């Protein structure tokens, strides 16, 4: 009974490749804080495949209802109840998670919200943690494909605060909160998976 649930074809397409990366990073018991859970397709797929981790889905208060039915139907023991988390306003669940994951949020949030997302994660991530950020990105102001350029234009025409972010700008944000970009994995459809870790942990690979 998954009919009529909020559904994203992009999530169906990217959940397999993303999982293969998350297996390498989320390789020990711990809680993953997901920011911007959306439909919950990622949460269900990743929690089912990674039973050693606890998945904490969250979303902005205006969107947190979207995933609830799917999460309830999945009834996985390692998915915690959905929480409302607006990166700009909510009190952060400090020290309650080892890892963080967010997909396709940085180009939807306003830049100030992206800053607040990094600040919240940076303040709470333990030294053996990591933050995986998936989506399309620019490199030194350049798009990695024409389709990403068109997507960026479409976003900006919908709302000025949206747009594909530059990896160098994200790395600078990370540095300001004690994180460093450890990995930049190329992913299908001109997406990337960025893995940020605490600067103190840079001598230790997330997979060690
Ligand atoms: C394009 S959707 C991505 C959903 C899902 N992660 C995926 O990959 O399909 C962007 C998500 O970011 C969330 N979002 C936007 N602003 C936010 C904020 N200030 N705090 C938390 N989540 C936010 C939206 O509610 C939405 O779920």
TrEMBL record:
<keyword id="KW-0489">Methyltransferase</keyword>
<dbReference type="InterPro" id="IPR010342">
    <property type="entry name" value="DUF938"/>
</dbReference>
<dbReference type="GO" id="GO:0008168">
    <property type="term" value="F:methyltransferase activity"/>
</dbReference>
<dbReference type="Pfam" id="PF06080">
    <property type="entry name" value="DUF938"/>
</dbReference>
<dbReference type="GO" id="GO:0032259">
    <property type="term" value="P:methylation"/>
</dbReference>
<keyword id="KW-0808">Transferase</keyword>
<dbReference type="InterPro" id="IPR029063">
    <property type="entry name" value="SAM-dependent_MTases_sf"/>
</dbReference>
<protein>
    <submittedName>
        <fullName>SAM-dependent methyltransferase</fullName>
        <ecNumber>2.1.1.-</ecNumber>
    </submittedName>
</protein>
